[in-house]
Structure formats: structure tokens, C-alpha cells
Design a protein that fits this description.
- The protein contains eight helices and 22 strands.
- It has about 400 residues and is of the alpha+beta class.
- It has two domains: about 180 residues, FAD/NAD(P)-binding domain, CATH 3.50.50; about 160 residues, 2-Layer Sandwich (D-Amino Acid Oxidase, Chain A, domain 2), CATH 3.30.9.
């Protein structure tokens, strides 16, 4: 269903139809809530432009405060994908062949880093040149770290399966652009869209690189949300024997992700502050040059396609769940390079916040501002406006 009647207000309105919005919506629908997603064109979502790495360790050579969350998300992924497949009837490509962490700098010693990863709970193995000849013979590096529990998912397939799951579970898709949230006496009661006002018991902001539009000025100044444009390409080795067996990653330089159809995704450039979806000759040349330094055979692979997307970044890169001071509004912000990986756990956090605010499915809604509802929230029916903030 593409258009919901304005007279039928859902329990929860989700702004943004990317992987986070869909994961959150499906979780809430499975709990019995009525949910609508407002998104004019989900094909522009960063989800469908992502590489799809499930990489809680290789991305970060030094521990980050949210590392536990990354590992939790990795462990949740098989069930997350299985639920999407069972509900939608769609197959989702998701594999864990392991990541080979490499460096283009032969002077960089990876052996010490292996022990760091092990201390973080990773199944990490140091590979010398002889090991690499056996494991991934095309690589032009002297050593690597094999992170056995990492892998990838096909973001486009997962997005399609979650979209089908959302519809199967009874969700409503509203193909409107959302301009602003509607607020009455300090409480958000819906949104303003290109087709008029929509009401809801709770509004969840999962709008990715557009999410800053719904933040208060003081939150925008503090969190510094900004877009980051990234370009990716898809190549096809001409011979089966040239296919890579693992995800290959050199953070900040290049990554290569093998696909079941024999192609390889190569990524990704990074242009902070650029919210366009441009493809540039410089970016494509950089991807080809860097990947060829790691794997010389890339130069002879067949060109398939190129695309770009815009990733949401806040602060120094930390994913953030924010409870707004305007009651009934919650934000999922700054998933950046880990948006695909973190979607199940951030979606679960947003679902919990929405459920705690609105109450059990089918229970009476919170009173309209200015009316009295004895026995709810406070002695006079008011709701506390104190700020709480969760930073993952």
C-alpha cells in the first residue's frame, strides 16, 4: 500500500526507508504495533549503494568505544537475515568467508596487530607470504591477518527482502517527502509532508544523511552531522580461477568483496561534506589503482558498473541513538561506514525506545497536549521533558 489515509494514524511513523528504518519497522510490526514508513524514493538510500561488509574488527585497528556493539551486531546477523528471508520468501546473499586484512606498505608489521585482535575476541590468524600463496594466491602483499568471523551481505538483496517483509507484516509505505516534524506543546504528534500532515504516536528519524533536518539547532551544532560521498565499482574476473575467496580489506585504501555471481565489489572513496551522488573520473581511477596494487589481476578484469552513495557521519564517527527533548521523537544517527552491520542492533534500540514511550500495542495513546489523563505519566497527565540520551 503506497498511501495511508491521514485519518488512520499509526502507532509509529518511521522517516526513512533504508536498512535501519526497515529493520526497526519490521521489529515493531512483529510486536503488534501499526507502523508506517515515509520515504519518497528508497532507491536513493545509502543501503542500496553500500558494499555490505560485516566487519567489526578489520575496520578498526585500534579499539573504539562502540566496538562491543559492532561485535554484537555481527553475532546477530545470521538470525537477522534468516528472519528477513523467512518472512519475505526472498533469498539474501550473506556469507562469512573471512576478511584478509592487508597493507600496501611492506614496512607495516601486521603481526602485533594479530594479538590486538585476539584480545578483542576475534579469531585472528597471521599469514606470511607462503600462507597467502595458498589462501589467496593473487595478492601482491607479503602478509595478512585472517579474521575468520567476518563476511558480507548483499545490501540490495537485503533491502528488497526487508521491504517485502515490511509489507508482509502489514506495514504501510507513504511515498511522500517529509519536511518537518509536527510539535504540539513540546510533544511530536506527526510530520509535515509533501501531501499534507501525518499523525502518529511516535516518530522515529532514520533518514540517514538527511536526518539532520529533524534535529534541534543545538543538537545539530553539538553532533555536527555531515554527509560523506562514497564511490564503488563492480568488476568481473574473466576466469573462475581468478576469483577471490575472501573479503580483502586495507582500511582507508581499498576493499574487495567477492559475490556469488562471480563479480567483485571494489570500494570505496570518501569525500566528507559532499552530499551529492556524483561519480568522478578521479574517484574511479583511485579505486582501480589502489585495488590493482593489492591484486594486480584487477587491471584485466571486466568492467560491470559503478555507483555512489551518501553515508551519514556525526561527531568523530560514533553511531548515536538520541532521545529528543521533544517528546515522542527518537533519532538513529551517524551509522556511517557500519550502517549495514549495525542496523539490527540500532533498530532494536529504537524499537525499545518507541515501545517504552507508547506502551503496549493497542493500549490507549498518550493524551493530546492540554488534556488530562489521570493515572498516566504524572498526577496531572503531563509527561516529563527531561532529556535522556543514548550513545552507543
Amino acid at each position: 500500500m503506497e498511501r495511508q489515509s491521514d485519518r488512520i494514524a499509526p502507532d509509529i511513523l518511521v522517516v526513512g526507508g533504508g536498512i535501519l528504518g526497515l529493520a526497526t519497522s519490521c521489529e515493531l510490526l512483529s510486536r503488534g504495533y501499526t507502523v508506517s514508513i515515509a520515504e519518497r524514493d528508497a532507491s536513493n538510500s545509502a543501503t542500496r549503494a553500500a558494499g555490505g561488509m560485516l566487519s567489526p574488527w578489520a575496520e578498526f585497528s585500534a579499539p573504539v568505544p562502540w566496538h562491543t556493539l559492532l561485535v554484537q551486531a555481527r553475532n546477530a546477523y545470521p538470525e537477522f537475515v534468516r528472519n528477513a528471508e523467512e518472512t519475505s520468501g526472498c533469498r539474501v546473499e550473506c556469507r562469512f568467508p573471512g576478511t584478509l586484512l592487508v597493507s600496501p606498505n611492506p614496512e607495516f608489521d601486521l603481526s602485533d596487530l594479530t594479538f590486538t585482535f585476539r584480545e578483542q575476541g576475534a579469531h585472528a590468524t597471521f599469514l606470511d607470504s607462503e600462507d597467502l600463496t595458498r589462501v589467496e594466491p593473487g595478492l601482491a602483499v607479503d602478509s595478512a591477518i585472517l579474521l575468520e568471523d567476518e563476511g558480507y551481505v548483499d545490501p540490495r538483496g537485503l533491502h528488497s527482502a526487508l521491504r517485502a517483509s515490511f509489507e508482509e507484516l502489514g506495514g504501510h509505505w507513504i511515498r511522500d517527502e517529509v519536511y518537518a516534524v509536527r510539535e504540539v506543546e513540546g510533544r511530536v504528534v506527526g510530520v509535515q509532508t509533501s501531501s499534507g500532515d501525518l499523525s502518529a504516536g511516535v516518530v522515529l528519524n532514520t533518514a540517514g544523511a538527511q536526518a539532520d533536518r529533524f534535529l534541534l539547532p543545538e543538537d545539530r551544532a553539538r553532533l555536527e552531522p555531515r554527509p560523506v560521498r562514497g564511490e564503488l565499482i563492480r568488476l568481473r574476473p574473466p576466469h573462475r580461477g581468478e576469483r577471490i575467496r575472501h573479503v580483502i580489506q586495507s582500511p582507508g585504501f581499498a576493499y574487495l568483496i567477492p559475490q556469488d555471481d562471480g563479480t567483485v565489489i571494489v570500494g570505496a572513496t570518501s569525500y566528507e561534506g559532499d552530499g551529492t551522488r556524483r561519480l568522478t573520473a578521479r574517484g574511479i581511477a583511485e579505486l582501480l589503482e589502489n585495488s590493482s596494487r593489492l591484486l594486480p589481476d584487477v587491471s584485466d578484469w571486466e568492467w560491470v558498473e559503478a555507483w555512489s552513495g551518501v553515508r551519514p557521519l556525526v561527531g568523530s564517527g560514533e553511531p548515536t541513538v538520541l532521545t529528543d527533548t521533544r517528546l515522542g521523537l527518537f533519532h538513529g544517527l551517524g551509522l556511517y561506514r557500519n550502517g549495514i552491520l549495525l542496523a539490527p542492533v540500532i533498530g532494536a534500540q529504537l524499537s525499545r525506545l518507541a515501545a517504552e514511550y507508547i506502551g503496549l500495542p493497542g493500549s490507549p495513546r498518550r493524551p493530546t497536549p492540554g488534556t488530562r489523563a489521570p493515572g498516566r505519566d504524572g498526577p496531572d497527565g503531563t509527561v516529563s521533558s527531561s532529556r535522556t540520551r543514548e550513545r552507543t
